[in-house]
Amino acid sequence: MFFTADKFLSIALHKRQEQNALRTLAVNNQLIDFCSNDYLGFANSKELFDLTELELSHLITQYPHLLGSTGSRLLAGNSAYAEDLEKLIAAFHNAEAGLIYNSGYDANIGLFSALGQKGDTIIYDELIHASIRDGIKLSQASAFMFRHNNTVHLEERLKTAQGLVYVSVESIYSMDGDTAHLKEIAGLCKRYKANLIVDEAHATGITENNGRGVVQQLNLENEIFARVHTFGKALGCHGAVVLGSDLLRNFLINFSRSFIYTTALPVKSLASIRQSYQRLERSDALIQRLHERINYFKEHLSENAKGKLIESCSAIQCIVVNGNDKVKKLASAIQKDGYDVRPILSPTVPKGKERLRICIHVFNTILQIKGFCDSINRNL
After folding, report:
1. Residue 1: which pLDDT band, with cuts at 50, 70 and 90?
2. Lesser CB count within 10 Å: N end or C end of the chain?
């Protein structure tokens, strides 16, 4: 049977609607934020905005193209400012070098697609982010999943791996909020001569070491082949960096397609990243306040809600509600109480593991968190 393209689109969307999993866009609302990744409030910080504007006023004579870079980094889009920023970020994270990408998605696509060659093996945690999965698909390597945070299963995979071996985990998982068993995983990778890659997207800015991430919290920098830190979560701006050796940086400049074939971030974006990192240098009290709010939230849930909560010490807290219909109805009821929380549906998460994905922020007041918990307890 011949289908037009429009017919194919219509059937696909209808099937998604039948599954009660149709995604739609919504404009910003006036609800109290318990869903964004702006954990430290940097995206709404007037202080950071003003500091960025001040920085740009000093750069205007040196870099007249503040709003657009006018080309890729390999053509017209590179600058001494970008390279200095990469050095600043690498030093902050105790890495030899860094390469900035336009987003965390671009960074993971570019890293994994470039590294994985025919005959190599990539082993990844089953809950790894979609951007990493997509990068792996674009590589030429064989790929194998291991059960979430299961080091026994990981070792089984490592024993049979061929060629150059890469192991991919997130330090804090984006849809569960739990933490990788990094010490054990790093030890296994060292034993089997595998290269460990850690995505620190949701650890950047929230760990109690000025937001440097879990790898540095555990003093594992020298055990990690590559780290990815993104700027669109706690840092409140946009972009990402791949950290590693000078050799890795030079390799990616030559072989990472999502770096080579895209227009670079403009100086305006780079200035906001720089100011956010400088703010992290003096963020201890802010991060401590965030963790106090996370603990307050967990303490004020009912026993019923606590029983459905995925174990997490991060700003991401998830309450599992089986079924797309049920979790959508729960989110809607809580939104009617004035709190912005979103349901995460299958197939984004496995069927039966649908959940409310809750983000706690430093700007959420104790009163707001108490009211939010009351709403969850009442509607769950």
Report:
1. low
2. N
